[in-house]
Amino acid sequence: MPSLSLFKFSVSCVQASTLRVLCGFCWLLISVSATGQSYISLSIGADEQNAKSQSFAYQYRTESRTAFTVYGSQNDDAVLTSDLSSSTIGGGFSTAVNEFVDLGLSVERWGNSGDFTIETVNLQFTVQASQWSLSIEPRLREIKVITGRSLPVLRTLENGISSTGLYGRINYDGLDWMGASAFYSKDRYDWDVTNLDLSTRPRLFQIFSPVTLSLSQGLEDHSYGLDLSLYHSIGLLGLQWSRSRSLVTGNSSNALVVYGSVGVGDHADVGVDLGMQSPDNGSELAFGSVNLGYSW
Q: What is the model's pTM?
């Protein structure tokens, strides 16, 4: 069965050279601004099928709403003798245009570099007005499938197929004790990705690696969800529900996550996420993670 990250998120990333430029800009930003705040978080997780994950994120934000973020994750998964591991690395930058508008750019690279990768560039446009904010993110993606074979269709996949998408989120933060948001995401592909559907083409196992087939089954048609957070002086408690549809298989899946965090001292926090993934035509999968954060 494909790993959990396949259904939860459609993530992608950038080439290492681009990320090095972003990292260099991050340290330049820190060196020229004395009024910002840094935050770093580390997370470890697992699901009931023994898939393990580790992730980190670092953000630097100034009082003028300029922010830079870098992040990465590793998902270690295996089925019998097949290694289905994947990794993510990426970064982003955003800045305030005026009192109400923020603009940003982010890049990601997700997958397994020897088999299946997705590289993504996201533009970010956010409008803030009193208690509400609206974020719109158009994206461009390149999907590469490496097989080492010379058939024309396989060379097309190795050269990369393109995808365009749009992500939107509306947030409400009008109460001191509660915040809420809703999102919708849609993707289109310039190649018929249903050709990768294992249920109709079982001979794909003779062409593609297990990790390619596992990761590709989650290429999304669309997803949407809701998020509710309750705030308290000692921390927060939240509930997130999402639903996504794979364009490859046509199958849909629900995910429900309960999350919370508690402050430890003036600078640190500890959090826990517990969730359940429920495919419409499959068995449920429980997962969870522990998160540590520190700000300075």
A: 0.84
Per-residue pLDDT tens for 38-96?
A: 999 999 999 998 899 999 999 999 988 999 999 999 999 877 677 889 999 999 999 99
Instruction: Decide: 88 and 109 in contact? Cβ < 8 Å.
Output: yes
Q: How far apart are CA 143 and CA 66, in angstroms?
A: 31
Gap between the Cα atoms of 115 and 165, Å rounded: 23
